[in-house]
Amino acid sequence: MARDVESVGVTDVGVPLRQLLAAVGDPLVDVLAAPRGLDVEVRDVVIVDPEEESGSARDSDFVLVIGARGRAAAPLVRAAARDGATVVAVKVGSEPEARALRDTAMAGGVALLGVRPEVRWERLEAYAHNAIDNARLTSDADVGEALGDLFSLAQTVAAMTDGIVSIEDTASRVLAYSRSDDEVDELRRLSILGRQGPEQYLVMLREWGVYQRLRAGEDVVRIDERPDLGIRRRMAVGIHAGSQPLGSIWVQEGRRPLSERSERALLGAARLAALQLIRQRSEATAGPRLRENLLAGLLEGRVDARSVADNIGADADRPAVVAVFTLRPMGSVDRSELELQRAEMTGLISVHASAYRRSALVTTIGSRVYVLLPELPERSAAQSALSLTREIVAAAKQHLTSRVQAGVGSAVLTLDEVAESRAEADRVLDALVHDIDAEVATISDVRAQVVISEILTVLQGNERYRDARLTALHDHDSEHATDLARSLLAYLDHFGDVKAASSALHVHPNTLRYRVRRATDLTGIDLADPTERLNTHLQLLLTKRTRHRPT
């Protein structure tokens, strides 16, 4: 029996879908489609079920489809689109279901949210209802989180420039600044204390057109030292949202000259600061970081590429590359120190990526940091991404105590294919685990390691491919405290070179010969047969991987 639509939130105040997602967001929903972008307005929340007739939804509604999942919800998505709804939320299981519903939503011009199967509808409704009811309040939301991000950004820029950083709003009020035991001048000291700097110097900045240039565009402005006023040399850049000035970032020279990378670091930092200041104004600070969540969804194949492209202002039909970074701690570090280093690495990556491409996206998944570089030049996409990745790792080497390794995926023709670039970047990075000297690699650098790793993964997932003779050899080692399997692996790793293999194991060559002979006697494996030898090598490598998997 059909039932009336249940209106669960009625208000004459709308909220942009972007802001609604900030209140709802991951891990409840994924943006599967947003054909009209994320700035469309949502005014009300309604619940419908499969028995509802067309006309249940109204203009600018957020429709929760309860009682129909996957493809079964397609008619309700079409009906909601015809009725003028802004967004429809549906529970989606498999990826084919998500693709089918995504196509339906794109054709109807309505945004589609995929709701995780374990999410309770009443929880989602409550978040959405609350977001709309509090639309007027979000512009006055507590800015604590955004300011925390700005302080982190200031510290990152300070490390990259070798300078002392402050971030200011358009009224020259200091929003955030870097920590430093370096020598600060009078202007910085008074600015941080909330007092005005030397009037004579401020007049000179105005006369030189510094403030005008900062408001006009992204050019980095250099300001000379004034020893007579106690003012050190500076660089500054404006923070903008389009043509609207939002503030500025200043770097004072300390004991050392500002680094050659200072201009680029300032440019990237200004673009990141703009996003944070905009989020401070338009999103509830308790919400997730939408751009990062969209990228995570895109990399995992959950989110429509064109929706992401619309959100970041990129062309979805141009080449893109994904690079992935991870920390390799030098020695033992506790969890808090590791998280701090990872945050510093993420900040450094974000600054470099934003300086290179305004539309670049950075997100963290697990212990890895991913960078999406869209709209790359068709003929040099791969080389451009590789050059930037090397630059980031070189900068990390100077500023972090842990090593950073990176894998770069192949260029793909469109954003729809970036999940493939991400998967390849991950495989490349996996192959670098045992190479402590490698810093950056592409598939061409580690193809052999990747191929072997893929083969071992297949073997690991299929017990019927495991060789019982080698399992018995490992059991013999465990029972008799021998080292036959490891010795046989070393022998194969060194292509039968007894001298090299015995040296690697720190045993006498005769000891190694005995162990190899004993291993073949126990297993019946004929090492003269190249097929048997290859199979034995792979099986032993698989056991080594499963027993000594790197953390």
List the helices and strands and how they pair.
Layout (H helix, E strand, L loop, with lengths): L5 E11 H7 L5 E5 L7 E8 L12 E9 L4 H9 L4 E5 L3 H14 L2 E5 L5 H13 L1 H4 L5 H18 L1 E7 L4 E4 L8 H7 L6 H9 L2 H7 L4 E3 L10 E8 L2 E10 L8 H21 L7 H10 L5 H8 L8 E8 L6 H22 L4 E5 L2 E6 L7 H19 L3 E6 L9 H14 L8 E2 L5 H14 L7 H13 L3 H10 L4 H8 L3 H15 L6 H18 L4
Parallel strand pairs: 3-4, 4-5, 5-6, 15-16
Antiparallel strand pairs: 1-3, 2-6, 7-8, 7-11, 9-10, 10-11, 12-14, 12-15, 13-14
Helix pairs in contact: 1-4, 2-3, 6-10, 6-13, 10-13, 11-12, 13-14, 15-16, 16-21, 18-19, 18-20, 18-21, 19-20
General description of the model:
The protein is of the alpha+beta class. Helices cover 47% and strands 19% of the residues. The chain contains 21 helices and 16 strands. α10 crosses α13 and α13 packs across α14. The longest helix is centred in the middle third of the chain and has 22 residues. It is flat and about 85 Å long.
What's a quick, concise take on this entry?
The protein has 551 residues and is of the alpha+beta class.
Distance between the termini: 55 Å
Q: If you average the pLDDT, what whole number results?
A: 81
Strand neighbour order, sheet with most strands = 1-3-4-5-6-2
- DSSP strand tally: 16
Low-confidence stretches: 1-11, 136-147, 282-288
**How many distinct helices?**
21
- What level of helicity do the residues show? 40-55%
What form results from the Cα inertia axes? flat
- Strand residues, percent: 15-25%
- The helix-and-strand class reads alpha+beta
Major sheet description: 6 strands, mixed
Radius of gyration from the CA trace?
29 Å
